[in-house]
Amino acid sequence: MSIDTTHLSALKDLAGDKAWSDDQDVIAPHVTEPRGKFSGKTPLILFPGSVTKLAKIIAYANQNNIKIVPQGGNTGLVGGSIPDLSGNEILINMKRMNKVREIDALNHTITVEAGMLLSEVHSNADKIKCQFPMHIASEGSAMIGGNISTNAGGINVLHFGVMRDLVLGLEVVLPSGDIWNGLTGLRKDNTGYDLKQLFIGGEGTLGIITAATLKLFPEAKQKNTAFVAIPDTEAAIKLLALAREVSGDSLIAFEILPRAGLEITAKHMPGCRDPLENKYDWYILLECATSMQSDLLNLEEVMSKILEQAMDQELVLDGVVAKNISEARTLWNLREFMSEAQKFEGGSIKHDISVPVSKIPEFLRVATKVVEDAVPGIRPIPFGHIGDGNIHFNLTQPKGMDKQEYLAKWEDINHTVHEIVTSLGGSISAEHGIGILKAAELEHFKPEIDLKVMRDIKKALDPNNIMNPGRVLR
Ligand SMILES: Cc1cc2nc3c(=O)[nH]c(=O)nc-3n(C[C@H](O)[C@H](O)[C@H](O)COP(=O)(O)OP(=O)(O)OC[C@H]3O[C@@H](n4cnc5c(N)ncnc54)[C@H](O)[C@@H]3O)c2cc1C
Fold first, then answer.
1. Which residues of the chain fall below pLDDT 70?
2. Which domains are seen in the chain, by residue range?
3. For ligand 1, is residue 94 a contact (CB within 6 Å)?
4. In this predicted structure, what is the pLDDT of residue 2?
5. Pairing mode, if any, of strands 318-321 and 222-230?
């Protein structure tokens, strides 16, 4: 059953001129996701330009039981931002709602609309010599509303926290069409349930975020980046503890890269090369930053101290320290292009898991053995935010194997790896969310009582199940 044309016309009228399209060429880039794992279709995409217009659209959709998929930059990695294949879901893309509502420099807050690109939030913060510290490789395309809805993480979580820690207030259009104005710059507010937290990480299943008040921090005046070789993953977590202690808590990023990942990144990605002469099994990219001037705290000296002590303790075997921003960028490219480089090596089965930092070596040891036994020749490329206990446990296909035959193993391998993660007290989704991709796994691994509370909340806010149905909760 398709959506009645009278409903489509009514939605177009409510959105207004130039705020909708039913042209499939315009719609096409909005109905596949970045990895190409999911695709969908829709007869209509809306680009609302104001909260009041959006509220009227949602009220109409609710009254007429029309399903809605909210969309930001469509960089999400779990299939939650595109419609399904039924053609019965309307896309609402937030790109036209992209203004700064308020900057309060003395309160260290910025209030922006949900369709603002994350990179634009950064540049607006720069203008008042502040920083918004969430950084992800997709920041030039991802929108702040999408970042909030996925509770995004990124490379600076170690110091600044996830999106949940960075949002002070929200404005949301609820599935009823009501507008909840929870925009506030308060850091302390103990007046009952913290409603904004329902929508942060809600993946568009409880309402559409239209604006947010975000925390800002003083801009970094110094940054120091090092790329070091380590003997094994046990050394990685000891180095993390050492660096945190010695750096006076100025450590903001701590990422792990395996040799196999470095090799394919250097092979396929322009401008990338192994910065060290000798070969090692594992590497750490670490970065310290501070808003202090160098005469008060010299980060070069801090990094030297960390590396000196780490070499004494045989936690570091070799390494380079970036001498300037451009060298630091080159080192970061090795990390940020690692996912992209895997595409050149055939199929890749992905995981976005977290375990307590202290359990990372055990997770890597056990999970690597299990997948190597299951698929001889498989090429594990585990990399990422080890400082947060978050590993992108990506598995490149064996050389010469048929790609589709390999990718057909995705669910089985995911499930096996998730069993290991769960046994270590970890999470099957550290930062990418659940979407469609992991809805079945969530049902399997989340305790029944958690699922019941989640379903009760969903029913209370969205009794007609119009808002991103089937994502997160099936
Ligand atoms: C190269 C690359 C690198 C990445 N690196 C990271 C990383 O380091 N850390 C990380 O956490 N993620 C990362 N991601 C994943 C992705 O960028 C994040 O999940 C991002 O937060 C999604 O933002 P978006 O605007 O693209 O949202 P979309 O993909 O459009 O949507 C994501 C989800 O949020 C919902 N949604 C979007 N906007 C709204 C809104 N206004 N109100 C309610 N719901 C909404 C959608 O329905 C969907 O369920 C990466 C992705 C790529 C392609």
1. 1
2. 5-93 (3.30.43.10), 100-218 (3.30.465.10), 222-339 (3.30.70.2190), 346-431 (3.30.70.2740)
3. yes
4. 87
5. antiparallel
